[in-house]
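Q: My labmate handed me this sequence with no annotations at all. I'd like to see what the chain might look like in three dimensions before we decide whether it's worth expressing. Could you predict it?
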Amino acid sequence: MTFSMTGFAALEQPIDNATLLLELRAVNSRYLDLHFKLDENLRSFEPGIRELISAQLSRGKIECKVNLMTRAQANQAVQLDETLMQQLADMQTKALAHFPQGRILSIADVLRWPGVVLVEAVSQDTLMEDVKKLVQQGLQDLNASRAREGNKLKTLVLERLSQIELLVEKVKPLLPALTKEYQAKLENKLQENLKTIDMERVAQELVLFAQRIDVDEELTRLTAHVSEVKRILNSEGPAGKRLDFLMQELNREANTLGSKSVSVQTTQVSMELKVLIEQMREQIQNIE
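A: Here is what I predict for the chain of 288 residues:
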């Protein structure tokens, strides 16, 4: 299956006395680049989360955000840290002595102060298991998003591969016609200048001309590369780097075809090939 490196997942999971919030964002990158924004109470879980993500993703810039929103149970009396509130009151008195025009703390300010409202602590072991389950589910959703985007990219690439195959078939019958056209021009030129035609010389010139414009090898390699791109797109595992290499090979053959061109038709085909290859290369930059 073809996966895009772009995706997004967001989940919310209620747990005892709290709610876990998860966001996973992925964009393209040459390597696996992990960035974490974790709640202060979850910082110690980063190695475990990193291991889970690394086991399922191989490329892309991944941003993982996990927040822990604590809450008091309906049947639980809310308790306040009176010691902390007294410390806030003392600090405010000292601060106002230096800044008498300053705004005093409101009740809402005090209640929002970290640690003022006491809630039952969540078990770290239980919390770690909950975070792991949430991250696993988030990765499933992220991969589903990446798979949908990957299928779109795969369709775009396959469409351009079909166009390349049509162009290759268009070039093949041109070569014998070009040789015959060159032979007629050569015979006319010799007849005008020499009055007689040296067929041995004509044969030699035709051999040299045929060798110079022979692109059968390039067309064969183009066909082989197209088949390999299709095979990789339908295979399992990361494919982006291999596809990027094949784009370079396809572009090399298209350039050689253009350099050997002796007609407007083959030059045009070479240009169309390079446009299609560049379009595929842009899409492949987003494939894992």
